[in-house]
Write a structure and sequence with these properties.
Layout (H helix, E strand, L loop, with lengths): L6 H17 L23 E2 L4 H4 L10 H5 L17 E5 L12 H24 L5 H5 L33 H8 L15 H24 L4 E5 H9 L22 H18 L4 E6 L5 H8 L9 H21 L6 E9 L7 E8 L8 H7 L11 H10 L15 E2 L2 E2 L12 E2 L5 E2 L9 E3 L2 E3 L9 H7 L3 E5 L6 H8 L25 H6 L2 E4 H8 L5 E4 L14 E5 L3
Antiparallel strand pairs: 1-2, 2-14, 3-16, 4-6, 4-13, 5-6, 5-15, 7-8, 9-10, 11-12
Helix pairs in contact: 1-4, 7-17, 11-17
């Protein structure tokens, strides 16, 4: 461990205790952790989200009423606020002030006081510790038992020594974390064998990396505003002559992954491909299977489960996803493909999954129900003739069961399944008057037992036989070539990060009327980060993919050109 005799080291160790105090305060008693600093993401409380009542149970939380607060949550993407399905290590971030309610309880009042006191104490510590070499060994003594240095900014980047000059001199924190979470035979891989502590290390590492990126964006913006000419004209007509009341103060650029401009541009790129290739023909959801034999057999040697190694599960999912896209583009499964789009999503279920849109060539497009039956099935296969397929369908492609058999299922709301299961028996596939497919589900007496319930063909999720046999995962294949579902599908594919629901307390009497639009703060608020998403981003895997590529051209309408002006204008 580093020498603690010096005054600096002693002060760092003592101030770490204040950091730990913030992370262990009972989140059920204080509505929102108070923090306005950019580095607050390193003070996340990594806990079992099933016990985090304040941020996951919508019935226990207050509904945001302030217009500024509600603007920070995109209410159009309700799926982003779904409750978590399993117990996992994750972190949530928020930047709102902790103002005491009008009639607070004593414990809640004391907790908020502790928050306010310790936050002011730790602002200086954050600036010193985030990239200090003692940060990781002090925060994770079990992962760095010999007191090894953590990341520091002066680690040299060693490229090809024969090159006359190097483009950069030092490595980034992302590269350092990516190096440390690799399993090697020559050294003891303490980090990757630490089970749930490994999850915490991943989440904490990427939250620190993302916080540093956002801090850089915040500190390198000019003190200028940007607004459209027409918007300024309307502001002047309303009598708003103060430049501080209009425009965007802090902007999150479009090249920041996960930001609002990033998601909007990806949505627009997808619509550009749709205008060129036509409506998408297939909507495929490919979910990671943590019971893949490749990872299960490998981890038996170390007496670990797939839940202990999100890095291996994520890398295996990436390999299989790349192969799936390759198989689809080859044209042997669905026909010749004209375009493919997918996005990776990390819901509160512990595993990543991909939403894929497939555009087929006109000669291979499916326009008749008989063509749908060739590639999509919604029936339980025969157990004697197709035993392998039967086992996969019965374990991975059965919804629920829900309805009268299980009214307590998570999909049940107001006595009905939100996914509209069970479906009705149909002898032949048809397309209804609204353009939606009604798949063939024959009442042939075949069923499977799921727990204490029984499921027949009415509970089968649409699938493709070849894909299911090859990838042994939940792969939902839907026919979607009709105009009514286009907008929903494209916005669903690009709906953004998962979030949690929480209540905000704001001062009813603001000090001034200045309206500050902070897009970085809006990105932070209620951000939900799981271990799988953290490791996916650390490995720099693609979050969005599209083929063919889209070239973005800049243009503007009349009187809508962007202009830039200073605060004192």
């Amino acid at each position: 461990m580093a020498n603690s005799n010096s005054d600096n080291d002693t002060s760092l160790i003592s101030l770490i205790n204040a950091n730990q105090l913030i992370c262990t305060i009972n989140t059920e008693e204080c509505d929102i952790p108070p923090n306005n600093s950019d580095d607050h993401a390193s003070l996340v409380s990594l806990i079992d989200v099933n016990q985090m009542i304040c941020t996951t149970n919508t019935e226990e939380c207050h509904v945001p009423t302030n217009s500024d607060d509600s603007a920070s949550i995109d209410s159009t993407n309700s799926h982003a606020f779904n409750n978590n399905d399993i117990s996992e290590v994750a972190c949530t971030t928020n930047t709102n002030d902790c103002n005491i309610p009008s009639d607070p309880g004593i414990l809640q009042y004391l907790n908020c006081l502790i928050y306010s006191y310790t936050i002011s104490l730790c602002k200086l510590v954050l600036a010193l510790m985030l990239h200090h070499k003692f940060n990781w060994p002090l925060q994770y003594p079990l992962l760095f038992p010999r007191g090894e240095d953590g990341y520091r900014k002066d680690i040299e980047f060693k490229d090809n020594p024969s090159k006359p000059s190097r483009k950069r001199q030092f490595i980034t924190q992302l590269e350092w974390v990516g190096y440390r979470i690799q399993q090697r035979h020559r050294d003891t891989s303490t980090i990757v064998f630490s089970r749930r502590l490994f999850h915490q290390f991943l989440v904490d590492s990427f939250s620190t990396i993302e916080s540093a990126r956002l801090k850089y964006l915040r500190n390198h913006q000019k003190d200028l505003r940007a607004d459209m000419y027409r918007g300024l004209t309307e502001a002047v007509l309303r009598g708003e002559t103060n430049a501080t009341t209009t425009g965007k103060r802090i902007v999150l650029p479009a090249n920041f992954v996960g930001g609002p401009r990033y998601m909007i541009q990806n949505y627009q790129d997808a619509m550009a491909i749709c205008s060129w290739a036509g409506y998408p023909d297939l909507f495929i959801t490919f979910t990671c299977n943590h019971k893949w034999p490749e990872v299960v057999d490998f981890l038996k040697t170390y007496q670990l489960t797939p839940a202990d190694r999100p890095d291996l599960v994520t890398r295996l999912f990436k390999i299989k996803l790349d192969q799936l896209i390759k198989d689809i583009k080859q044209g042997s499964i669905f026909g010749r493909v004209k375009a493919v789009i997918y996005t990776i999503e990390f819901q509160k279920c512990g595993l990543p999954h991909a939403h894929i849109l497939v555009f087929l060539q006109p000669i291979h497009r499916i326009v008749h129900p008989h063509g749908i039956n060739k590639i999509i099935s919604t029936e339980i296969p025969d157990k004697d003739q197709e035993r392998e397929l039967f086992n996969i369908v019965s374990s991975l492609m059965i919804h629920g069961p829900c309805g009268d058999q299980n009214k307590g299922s998570p999909c049940m709301q107001k006595g009905r399944c939100i996914k509209y299961f069970p479906k009705r028996f149909v002898n032949n596939t048809m397309i209804d008057s609204k353009g939606y497919p009604v798949y063939r589900r024959r009442d042939n007496g075949v069923f499977v037992k799921k727990g204490e319930s029984f499921a027949d063909n009415r509970f089968v999720v649409p699938y493709n036989r070849r894909l299911l046999l090859k990838y042994n995962a939940h792969i939902n294949v839907e026919w979607c070539n009709q105009s009514r579902s286009i907008k929903y599908i494209f916005k669903y594919v690009n709906k953004g990060h998962d979030r949690v629901t929480a209540g905000f307390y704001r001062d009813a009497n603001p000090r001034d009327n200045t309206q500050v639009v902070d897009e970085i703060k809006k990105y932070y608020d209620c951000r939900y980060l799981s271990a799988c998403e953290a490791v996916w981003r650390i490995f720099v895997f693609d979050v969005n993919y599209r083929e063919p590529s889209v070239e973005r051209l800049s243009f503007h309408r009349e009187n809508e050109q962007p202009i830039v002006y200073p605060d004192e204008a």
